[in-house]
Amino acid sequence: MADPVLRVMRPGEEPEVAALIHFSTNAWYVKNGRPPVFQCRPEDCLLFTDVYGDLDPGCCLVMEEAETGRIVGSCFHHPRSTHHSVGIVNVHPDCSGQGLAGRMMARVFELAGDLPVRLVSSAMNLDSFSLYTRSGFVPRQIFQDLLVRVPQAGFGTRPSPGVRPAVLSDVPQIAALERRLGGIERAGDWEYFIRNIRGIWRVFVLEKADGSLTGALASVDAAASCLVGPGAGETGEIMLALILAQLEALSGKTPVILVPVDATDVVQSLYRLGARNCELHVAQVRGLWQSPQGLVIPTFMPESG
Length: 305
What we know:
Blueprint: E1 5-8, H1 14-31, H2 46-55, E2 60-64, E3 71-79, E4 84-91, H3 100-112, E5 117-122, H4 126-134, E6 138-147, E7 163-165, H5 171-182, H6 187-195, E8 201-207, E9 213-222, E10 225-233, H7 236-249, E11 256-260, H8 264-272, E12 276-286, E13 295-297
Helix pairs in contact: 1-2, 5-6
């Protein structure tokens, strides 16, 4: 059989890519003795094609079987001024071991040029871990995936002084804060979260008396993804205040938060709220890396950091 063809996803193929994301991701977890990640309908994974289509149109690579036309691989990528990020990568189980993920990654490297390429990968999936490290990625930071069941009435915590919902005029400060603390810039993403055209985003900031911002934290609440992040804060205390604000706003939900393993105070505080570990993830970078200052939280939606 002819090798699958690497190309860009075409308009109208979003449902097929969403179904591939749902099926292939769940199949890997079930095969490895874990419950399915997506406890939702396949069509709910249109979240990925919708959001990434809004943020980065034309930035989804697919692998198409030459004989059947079936899409058997997909890879989202996110070009930014400071870096190029790799989003969710999927290969149909029928085609595992054929090097399709490697071909898609090689194309992302071409598109990134001299920019660093960043991703967050599962520490459980040694196949993908090996794929990335063989491709030149270096593991830089480990995160605990903390799952928090928020009571219907919330936890009853009051917002810390200075914590408030973000507004569009905050975007320049948020972007500068993330650049200073994390070494990346994505003002367009933060504007997108705050505009919230799909009704699934929420952003809180912590503002000092002089009007400067010391932390920002987003969350997404959708059928295929309930996550707290991305965010950046000057201290763990600041980030914890923002996390608690997000959790209160997600009452009755079960969000996941990726917390750096060395953020001991934040981790212990979330444990006291009943959080439990559900997975570990690794931040990997191919190229220039800046060690985070303060506390930086990544996310899987969107994987643009």
